[in-house]
Design goal:
2 domains, about 15% strand, alpha/beta, nine-stranded mixed beta sheet, 11 strands, Rossmann fold, about 400 residues, two-stranded antiparallel ribbon
Length: about 400
Amino acid sequence: MKPKIGTDAIVLVVFLILFAVVSLQIAGRDTSGDEGPRPRRSTFSPKPGGWKAAYLLLEQSGIKTRRWEKPPSTWPDSVSAVIAGQEVLAVEGGAYWTADQAKDAMGWVERGGTLLLFAAENNAVTQEVGVSPDLHKNKDNEVHPTQPAPYLNGVRGVVIPGAERFLALGKDATVLLADDKPAVVAVKRGSGRVLLVSSPAVIDNRTLSKAENARFLVQAVSAFLQPARKDGVLWDEFHQGYQEERSFWNAIGQPGQFALLQLGVLIALISYTMGTRFGLPRPAPPQDRLSSEYVSSLADLYRRAKASDAALEGVYLSFWRDLCRAVGMPLDSEAAEVARLAAASLGSDSYGANAGEKRAKRETRITRLLQECETRIEAGAKKLPDNELLTLARAIEDMRKELELGRDERKD
């Protein structure tokens, strides 16, 4: 007979599958469309048109890099450069450049930042700087430096996939790489600059290894790193459709998301375990007995037996033993002598002003209480109603507290 899979194992497998699915949803990115005529230039995409290789190249070159999924108005002044690619179509997520975003980007550039824009079509940024890319006769050609620049040292040529070139340049544009038409230009703005490349495919996963494309990217970024801007380089994912929503889930980032996910799975497993019986049923452990149960049962026994005298005798004898022990007298001593010694030595007010008067009154009350208890006990239960028994028991307890009898024992 084949062993059956237990319910616990099935539940555990389901939770593990759920954990794996949600983890992939958190860590994964949709890179669909990368093989179409308009690839998504995202650093998350390992497909031919993606930029994941370029992102990893900068990381491995020791350049601090991170992705940014917020609009240009949030670009921090602590980063030296922002790398942006061809925007995705509006129908793919509303990620096109707007005029306001272009002005925000130019404001960031004017404060000293460097924007590297890889775009084969006009957008709000190219219009803002007065540079217009368009189709040219040359296709998949290699362009070469047109003038010396520190970040072009060792760069003999860069492959430009496609036929886009800059056919219209503003007066502030400087041509850096070209064949018979400019392919890479720089535009100075305030304390910063915009570096424009006429094809976003120059640094995609398929083309990065051709000619000097990788060297060009690393040197162009490294040349504009500033010591005062310690956060390195941002990759603009906002215009690739990855736009971060303002929520607690996004604020904690992937480490926090994984931690909460694991915590949720752990809580679910604990809840299931606590609600499931493992092994054979066992009887519940007996409850602890309270001392008050003994007192209640004994009192009920005395009441049913109508032995009020015996109940009083039990309370009285306990009081008498404690009283004799406190004054150092034997149990067969005279009540008057024990009362005299107790009044003189017991209680917190045995000394001080008016101590003699207080001792005399206390001696009288002790003597009267002892005599009354002995008289009631000798008379028997018929002469001791329940209300008088309760009165004498309370009087004994009050006197015990006044004389501080048994205080150390009760604390222990």
